[in-house]
Amino acid sequence: MFLNLQNISKKFSNNSVLENINLEIQKGEFFSLLGPSGCGKTTLLRIISGLEHSDSGNIILEEKDVTKLTPQQRKVGIVFQNYALFPNMNVAKNVSYGLEIKKESKDVIDRKVKDVLKKVNLSHKENASVSELSGGEQQRASLARVIVNEPSLILFDEPLSNLDYALRLEAREELKRLQREAGITSVYVTHDQGEALALSDRIAVMNKGVIQQVGSPKDLYNNPVNSFVSGFVGHYNIFSSEESDEIMGITDIGKDEALIILPENLKIRKSEKPTNIQLKEILYNGSFTEFILKTQGKEIKSICFSNEKIAEFVIDDFALLEFNPGKIKVIKK
Ligand SMILES: Nc1ncnc2c1ncn2[C@@H]1O[C@H](COP(=O)(O)OP(=O)(O)OP(=O)(O)O)[C@@H](O)[C@H]1O
Ligand SMILES: [Mg+2]
């Protein structure tokens, strides 16, 4: 095992931010910490890097206990959300800075900087000032600055969140390619479930400082263990015992359980007669359409792909639900 977090806990004043975190990360793995704002992702990343210390627990990196080591002693690179580039230096200088501190020879520095700029497609911007770079280029420059030091572990803290949507998708693809080619073990923090699903080998879903589930993207999406993970990762519809009975017509759900179904597995049929389910919103998305329905004060979501036939709906239409009982899951509340 490459990185092992053992019983990590952290409080700020009396506020418990991380509770007994245990994780095992393999060499070369792209591992994400996914959770809502304030759940402790950055704090955990800072503890792994050495910028912050935990109150208890140990961090084992490549068989070595690094719990008490400084960031410099850990051979860990960090890419921050705001890139933290030096604004008064050009791209090449930003990238070479770490090597100069290590007193590498000029030849070695020049070669390494050229290589890494080529890798991130920034060779043509070598002499540009970082303030002249686009958001995506800045993101690539900050990655180059980290890769050039050949860290054994890279930590990413929401590195794509400053980019607009189209650029974010492009940068996501680029990042995945670079990580795969370089084979550097990566721990990636995000609150964006789509990003985590697309990039990661495995994901730890966190809520309020506690790990809820660890698994591959497919695992988490298809087999969430509780209602937090099902809501956060899959945007499942979640029904309590009573709601299952009243809305889905399923009576055997226990009080401490919930019934869940993915929006794409919940289909709607138009009803000419009034029913207790009414369409409230239609969100067209290109390859699919989301239908937001309301029943007894509860909102539910149905997704229809563009290649599926569905009746023309208008807002306030009455609907009936259709689903394959095999697609329903029962989880802990
Ligand atoms: N230095 C600090 N002093 C006091 N409280 C802190 C400190 N750093 C973080 N916290 C608190 O710890 C909790 C977790 O913060 P953290 O930054 O780890 O969350 P996060 O999951 O990264 O959130 P986001 O997605 O918004 O970046 C928050 O309630 C935050 O206010
Ligand atoms: Mg954060």
Overall description:
- The structure is a single chain.
- The chain is α+β, with helices and mostly antiparallel strands.
- It has 2 domains: 3-229, Rossmann fold, CATH 3.40.50; 235-332, OB fold (Dihydrolipoamide Acetyltransferase, E2P).
- Helix content is 28%, strand content 32%.
- Strands 6-7-8-3-9-10 form a 6-stranded mixed sheet, sandwiched between helices. A 4-stranded antiparallel sheet has the order 2-1-4-5, with helices on one face.
- Helix 2 (91-101) runs parallel beside helix 4.
- The longest helix has 18 residues, at 165-182.
- The structure holds adenosine-5'-triphosphate (ATP) and magnesium ion.
- Adenosine-5'-triphosphate is lined by residues 12, 17, 35, 37-43, 191.
Gyration radius over CA: 24 Å
* Overall average pLDDT: 93
Query: What form results from the Cα inertia axes?
Result: globular
Task: For the record, give the distance between the C-alpha atoms at the N and C termini, rounded to a whole number.
Answer: 33 Å
Please count the beta strands (DSSP E, at least 2 residues each).
18
Classification by helices and strands: alpha+beta
Q: pLDDT under 50 segments (min length 5)?
A: none
Strands in their spatial order, largest beta sheet:
6-7-8-3-9-10
Task: Please trace the helix and strand order, writing H or E for each element.
Answer: EEEHEEEHHHEHEHEEHHEHEEEEEEE
Q: How would you characterize the largest beta sheet?
A: 6 strands, mixed
Report the CATH architecture of the largest domain: 3-Layer(aba) Sandwich
Strand content: 25-35%
The CATH topology name of the largest domain reads Rossmann fold
Number of helices: 9
- Helical coverage, percent range: 25-40%
CATH-wise, what's the superfamily of the largest domain? P-loop containing nucleotide triphosphate hydrolases
The CATH C-level name of the largest domain is Alpha Beta
The ligands found in this model are:
adenosine-5'-triphosphate, magnesium ion
How many structural domains are formed by the residues? 2
| Subunit organisation of the chains | single chain
